[in-house]
Amino acid sequence: MSGVEPRETEHKNSVKGLSSDDESSDNCEKSKPDQRQRLSSQSEAENDLPVLKIHNLNVSYGTNRALQDANLCVKASRICGLVGMNGAGKSTLFKAITRGLPQQSGTIEILGKQAALARKAGLIGYVPQSQEIDWDFPISVQDVVMMGRYGHMGSSRRVAAEDRAAVETALELMEITDLKQRQIGQLSGGQRKRVFIARALAQGARVLLLDEPFAGVDKVSEKAIMSLLRELAHPTAGTSDYGFIKTNTIVVSTHDLSSLEYFCDEVALLNRRVLFHGGVKESLEPLRLAEAFGARVEMGSETK
Predict the structure, then answer these.
(1) Which positions, given as ranges, span the membrane (predicted)?
(2) How far apart are CA 269 and CA 278, in angstroms?
(3) How many other C-beta atoms lie within 10 A of the C-beta of residue 286?
């Protein structure tokens, strides 16, 4: 796998000045392929279509509005950083996508399917910030990753050859094949994080949602995971066929502003609504960050 290199990012929908409704609006409609593009190769056409599309999403907890008219569009082969202060609605957004919430309105689509159908089809992979798991339970890394295949097995839970192949590929991609017989509780924080990402990959999900994936992870492991995920979204020549692993679109919530230029292709600034969605450098402009965080911020974390 190649190392993580800083990159210059641009977004054709970025505009000058402060965030506005134009910057956070649904930019999927602005980039529909023209007739010549529609006649290009299938892979190129697929990369130009939205994988995740959220329109006017509203979520409330009782009388508290957690999300209001949130819009977001993420295409294939993109890593989108979801950035905002605590309480901005990042985890709520992920919950709305992955399970639905009682007081929720608006639309969420994955590859043109409504969220409920996408979940049933296993198109959404989710790695929460913390896992509710008994770390002393005698279960191996391989068995944990195999859980991602349960939706493909039916009620019998009979493991087929394609399930084993998907698990082996996911283990290899996350570079934890040598740990597959280890008990999950024996691993470090960074290794555990790789295991749960591998489980989501083995599922065959097209979009991967990561909620604060680097919290409690050492910097060496963080850089390694970033590199592996970038390779997944942007495979190098000769590594584009991962068999049963279909993930190529990643949305990651994070507080670490310093990692955005190294890891993400684009950024969505969230404060109950999407204030800005575009290039990484544009998202880091002080006035935009002040709007998102409501205070002066410094690279790496928000200022108290």
Answers:
(1) none
(2) 9
(3) 9
CA distance 19 to 4: 29
DSSP H stretches of helix in 17-140: 21-24, 35-38, 42-47, 90-98, 115-120
| Domain span at 288 | 48-123+258-295
pLDDT digits (tens, 9 = 90+) for 34-59: 433 333 344 444 556 789 999 999 99
Question: Do 118 and 301 touch, CB atoms closer than 8 A?
Answer: no
Given a contact cutoff of 8 angstroms between Cβ atoms, the answer to whether 104 and 289 are in contact is: no
Answer whether residue 178 is part of any domain.
Answer: yes
* Cβ within 8 Å of residue 10, ≥6 positions away: 279
One domain, residues 185 and 227:
yes
CATH number for the domain spanning 193: value is: 3.40.50.300
126: confidence class by pLDDT, cuts 50, 70, 90 = very high
The answer to whether the Cα torsion of 81, 73, 131, 197 is positive or negative is: negative
